[in-house]
Specification:
Length: about 1000
Amino acid sequence: MANRGGHHVDAVTERRLKPIYDNLDNGNYKTAVQMADKVLKKHKELQCAKVLKALALLRIGKRRESFSLTQDVMVTKPVDEPTLQALTICFREMQKPEQIIELYTTALKSNPKNEEFHTHLFMALVRVGDYKRQQQVAKEMYKVFPKNPYYFWGVMSTILQALTSTDEKLAQMMYLPLAEKMVERMVKEKRIEAEAEVNIYLMILGYLNKHEKAIEVLDGELGKFLKVEVDACPIRKAELLCKMGRWAEANSAYKALLTKRPDNWLYCQQYLKSALGLIENNWSPPAADENDGENEKTCQPDYTMDMVLDFIQETAEVEEKKAAAASHAHPRGILLSRFELLRILKEKESPDIGKIGPVLELFRSYFELFGDRPCCYDDLCQFLPLIAPEDHQCFVQSLLDGLDMELGEDGIKYAKSIKQIYRHLCILKISRRFGLQDKLSQDEKLALADELIKHSEAALSYGKELLFTDLQYGDEYLLMAVHLLTDVWEATGEDKYLWRMLGLLENGLTSSASCHHMKLLLIRLYCLAGAFGPIPDLYDGLDIKHVQQDTLGYTVSGYVTSLGHFTSANALFNTTLKFFTSNNKDTTEYMITAYKFGTFHKIPEFLTFQRRIRNSIHCIQVTVEKLLLELLTEAEIAGNTLQDFILDMDIHPEKDNTKWDEICDNRDLDVMVSWAPEHRLFSAEDRKVSLQLEKSWLKVRQLMLRSLAAATYLTQNSPSTTTNTPTNNGDGPSHEKVLAMLTEQLDRHLTEVAEDPTLHKKLPLQGPPCTRLVNYLKGNCGKVFLLALKAMLSVHELSTQQDQSADLQSTIEQTFTNITDKCTESIRRSRRCLIKEEGGARLFDRHTLPELVLLVETLGFIILLAGVKHRLLKPMKLAAIRKSRKKKGGATPKLPIFQHFKDYIDNVQQLSDGLSMAVQDIDPTMLSLDLGKLNLSENSVEANDEEASLARAENTVWKRMEKSYHETSKELLDVLKNKKDFLATLKL
């Protein structure tokens, strides 16, 4: 716990409260409650003890009792610091920051001169983002306690009002000018005291595009405050000069900066940009002044191509001498600027391009200098298009000829040192980037893959002393071999290459356990093989932390439910949502810290970050999938009704709370390494397609969830229940209208998706996973779910009519028939054996599992909807029985709907049995199959040592797949069993 009272609490009270604090600190919350009760028996007026009890109750899950206690204390308007601190902690953990505002507002009325109360109130307003009131509170604080930080808190609050305003004109014409005047007042009164205050001034001028004024600030007395960053004033001034297009001054500034730090790539780019700006404008210097000093002459701008090239050459030579004298690495930035200049001139089709020199010589000289560094390929990659296609082969060959590699007994040349390994890998990457490997035949690709595997194994001898966390020097040989096998696999469609890749990567991880590239590729390949079982360990091995839950979570979240691992899905979703729920609180705390320490320029960054996380598509997807998973696996089991779940989820089906236009795609789609030619890489267009398909699938899932909620609320309108539900409290459309609207929206959306030309677009393996849309449409899952919703609406209409329409009952019967017919067709199509015979060979059918999982899910939701129909029809049946007993002339004829529903339930029961059989057909254990002994991958443990090692790794792969499929089958059967048990209770 924070401050336990200190000098604000007398020693006796401190001693009484200490046992409660200690138990809270140690996590003994029940004991803390007991200790608090013990204190309160003797000292009922001790409000702090009551709050500590509320905190302990909150942490053991008794939220309502805890909140009730806090409200009792709030009524007393506490002012003692321990009670206020404890209440603040309580409200923060309850995620009720507005209560903290009320707490300190009340406390300030009792003690308006208390500086800490003012500060706590301001920080409470930061938590809720009330920038206008922040400004007012900061203004009041400065009046009472005239300190600069409080004044600039008000300035920053004004800036935030501008940044969050939906009216751009209002921001530029009112808020930002007001903030500028507030700072200028302090400047005129010479009351600026810190670097943070100058930074906030520069920030405002930047937002107002007053770059000239910002330069004056940097050149004036205020510029002397900027001391934390080295060369802060020259760097900022150079940036502003570039923004203003003052190329001559900008060029001089960046020349001076490059002289100090020639390896800074940003400086190199800006230097070239400014120099080319001068050249294009035919700029020439004004007449020289005889009084100019020699120092100023050296900083003259470079305004011709010769001057630019001379500066680059001179700087490179100077740095080369320094590197040789000090025995340190040669800076790369200044040398890469030649390539950047060449690229720009080529884009502009400039005649000066010939002055730079032969292109191939530039690349060769750079390779000679840096080819033995892992960064060499990444440096050159963006500039490789400068080499003409006809020169690709000879360039690669010339680099290979320069390697003095050792010829092995098998006729393959092997690297003799670690540096040679890096040079050889760089050449191979360039070759693949050029597309030279694409031109190889299938047999040549397989031969090259085998050769690369041998290189990988040979390189292990150089990494024997490496730590467990280090990567092996030859890992990329193996990765490139797998990429080649991927090419062959995609071209032939033969899964034997998939199994071989899995074996290779598993074998590679035994030597390089920390190679994240292998793990990411293994995750993707296992998922494509239909096995999610090995993924949790691989994913945990990546050590995903914090924001990576958002940027990298997509690599597994899309597969975990589609492959039927519901337990793993629940754990993964909980971990992911924990990050998202805590992020808002954590980011707010970072903003508060920024206020306290004066790092105001970070606050807009935190605000942007918070907004991106809040609108993350991954966050929305995981939330929806988590709720659907709970309904599928837990609803109508052990007394937990669907209605209880929907009410606890607080779903409002009539509202679409997703801001579709503000959705952020935070996925890191470049995390998987690829050296493929540019036309085969994951492009910007592919990114747009992927995001659009993810949005389409998300909309399907959201409409499903809202439809299930709306259908559940239909039973609230029956005569025996009230209408006070989250969707129908006297305002807005009725439940049936909401469900009808959602059904229509889902129908229309599925039609649009089916007609989307990008639906079947094939994305690179190193790109994001595909959505489940194709399988969803292929399995008729959407059509079946829509039919179940339409039947739901018809049954509800029938239950609310005084006279039961025969036509409506006939329509319901037909809808029931259509549901069972389409489900039967889908199950028949998806029921196939895990191992199939084709062309005399045994093949593993890895495509059936995702289809079966969707069918199980769809049938599960149909059964849940059948339970809602049962609750609507049950009162009708009871009414018919009562009517029959009252009628003297004999029994009332039974309504056909009751028999239709009974037949429907029987048919759904049969569908469940059939689907259970289909699920059992994918369980290797149930089929008594040992996948490792079926020779599906064509490797033998009786081969040579290298092949035997790979065969053993592949055998491990099959064992893991066998276990994964068994686990999937078990989880699917558990869901079906629970839903069948519920079906058996639906008797009219």
